Amino acid sequence: MNEAGEREGAPLRVVVVDDQPTIRLGLRMIVDDEDGLEVVGEAGDGVEALAVVRRTRPDVVLMDVRMPRSSGIDAIRAVVADPALGAVRILVLTTFDDDEHLADALEAGAGGFLLKDVEPVLLLTAIHRVARGDTVLDPTMASRVVRAYLDGGGARRRDARLDLLSPREVEVLRAVAQGRSNLQIGAALHCSEATVKSHVRSMLTKLDLLNRVQLVVFAYEAGLLVPGVSSD
């Protein structure tokens, strides 16, 4: 798995996908101005996005949802379905009126969601976190993403599926659903970041899920957390 820091000294490679050239330009300027990041490709629709991703094999794709010819949802599905692109992480950039598409993006395998007007420093942090395999959900969108998935017909999980997980995995799951990074979880549970990653991989396998965002949804479905209610 291609994660931040594995290629010593090499910058994270980013592809920007949006149908508006001005937005692509703005995102490129933000990313390219950051040490340790570089934009290696752009696309204006889902068809172009898939071609660019296959050619450049980026670490992270900043993906718009609504685009002509082929949507970001179609592109996410195609990337996730291609074994050769298994290391590519997808961070969706969306708008507040995209609720109807959030469930589809989550089901397709997106690894995070941010609003398009996110502050540059938060976007840059999110790129690094997604590359490491962390979950990134804009605080104002977390419950919206979960509700969009549930209301959109996402596969309902029985609470009994928690029995598939060890007690420590349940602790990690709750922390993941609270939006904590692997590093933060490790510090809280007194274990290494590598151990946390191992627990996450184990849970994804046991629950037959694609990524950490779907783990977040499972946590809500299983009753570990309630949308819109603080878990602190």
What is the fold's blueprint, element by element?
Layout: E1 12-17, H1 21-32, E2 37-43, H2 46-56, E3 60-63, H3 72-81, E4 89-94, H4 99-108, E5 112-115, H5 120-131, E6 136-137, H6 142-151, H7 167-177, H8 182-189, H9 193-207, H10 212-221
Parallel strand pairs: 1-2, 1-3, 3-4, 4-5, 5-6
Pfam families: GerE, Response_reg
Domain HTH luxR-type: 158-223
Keywords: DNA-binding, Phosphoprotein, Transcription, Transcription regulation
Task: Write structural notes for this entry.
The chain is of the alpha/beta class and 232 residues long. It folds into two domains: 12-151, Response regulator (Rossmann fold); 159-221, Winged helix-like DNA-binding domain superfamily/Winged helix DNA-binding domain (Arc Repressor Mutant, subunit A). 47% of the residues lie in helices and 12% in strands. It is built from ten helices and six strands. It has helices at 21-32, 46-56, 72-81, 99-108, 120-131, 142-151, 167-177, 182-189, 193-207, 212-221; strands at 12-17, 37-43, 60-63, 89-94, 112-115, 136-137. It has a six-stranded parallel sheet, with helices on both faces. Helix 1 (21-32) links the parallel strand 1 (12-17) and strand 2 (37-43). The radius of gyration is 17 Å and the shape is globular.
